[in-house]
Design goal:
The protein has 129 residues and is of the alpha+beta class. It has a 3-stranded antiparallel beta sheet, covered by helices on one side. Helix content is 55%, strand content 12%. It has 2 domains: 2-54, no CATH class; 59-128, no CATH class. The termini are far apart.
């Protein structure tokens, strides 16, 4: 792990040692970079570094991974055909840019209210959300 001077201050680290993905984050102030470096060190020692990285993922990232790794290999063609328009037509246009840590009960309640206002929640699948 290192802090280096760039146009700001960049903290560089690896996810889990040699051969792993290199990461970096830039800060305007050196003190902020030092605090972040200490947090990375702390999380690494607690085994929580993966959680830090996962918190940056968006719902669109998760949906794409879920579709490829779970849905396509495990669900019937008719089920996929039913899920695809819901995912592409309603879920992703409204929620895709949210980071997973931003998907809260309040966000989901607003999402459901939006669907109901659009007349979507009257369908059998949508009522299960």
């Amino acid at each position: 792990m290192s802090i280096e001077r760039t146009s700001g201050w960049r903290v560089r680290w690896r996810d889990a040692g040699r051969g792993s993905t290199r990461r970096s984050r830039t800060f305007k102030r050196k003190e902020d970079a030092k605090v972040f470096e200490a947090e990375i060190t702390r999380r690494r020692s607690l085994g929580e570094l993966a959680y830090l990285e996962a918190s940056r993922r968006t719902l669109a990232d998760l949906a794409g991974e879920w579709w490829e790794l779970y849905a396509k290999p495990n669900l019937a063609h008719n089920t996929l055909a039913g899920y695809a328009p819901l995912l592409d037509g309603h879920i992703l246009p409204r929620l895709s840019g949210l980071r997973l840590r931003e998907v809260t009960p309040e966000v989901l309640a607003c999402f459901r209210a939006d669907l109901e206002a659009a007349g979507v929640a009257d369908t059998p699948c949508a009522s299960r959300w």
